[in-house]
Amino acid sequence: MPYLIVFAFLLSACNRVIYYGRTYPPTTDVEIYFRESDVKQPHEIMGKVVYEVTAKKRSEKVQDKLLRKSKKHGADAIIFDDISLTRTGSNTSGGGGGVGLKRGFLGIFGARTRYAKGQQIKGTLLKYQK
């Protein structure tokens, strides 16, 4: 039973926005930047966000989720620092028959690794100084 709980937690963590930083009262508008040099208003860096999702997720949905999270934490702007494609592996084992030496002894036993493509988006949340 504890394994089932851990597995469910790991599955839910794959699609979560992780935030480190300060929180202010929620805002209604968040400006989008891709370089800090484009931000003209005086500001402070209030925190960092990381979002890892499947590569199949549409960029508009990813951006909307990050904007909602930014508003919730009271950000006035977000800088998209890094957008990269990732590849994660998951080992599955079993005694299924297979062909080739990559599946273990005589291709009968052993583990197989499945890879999933994903994307990782990193951002910096800004709070304008008034």
Average pLDDT value?
79
The helix tally amounts to 2
Please give the number of β-strands. 5
| Largest sheet properties | 5 strands, mixed
Low-confidence stretches: 1-13
Tell me, what's the shape?
A: elongated
Give the radius of gyration: 20 Å
The number of domains = 1
Oligomer state of the chains in this structure: single chain
Commentary on this structure:
The chain is an alpha+beta fold and 130 residues long. It has one domain (16-128). Helices cover 20% and strands 44% of the residues. A 5-stranded mixed beta sheet has the order 1-3-5-4-2, covered by helices on one side. It is elongated, with a radius of gyration of 20 Å.
Summarize the structure.
It is built from two helices and five strands; from the N terminus they run αβββαββ.
Task: Annotate the secondary structure layout.
Elements: H1 2-13, E1 17-21, E2 31-33, E3 43-54, H2 59-72, E4 77-94, E5 110-128
Parallel strand pairs: 2-4
Antiparallel strand pairs: 1-3, 3-5, 4-5
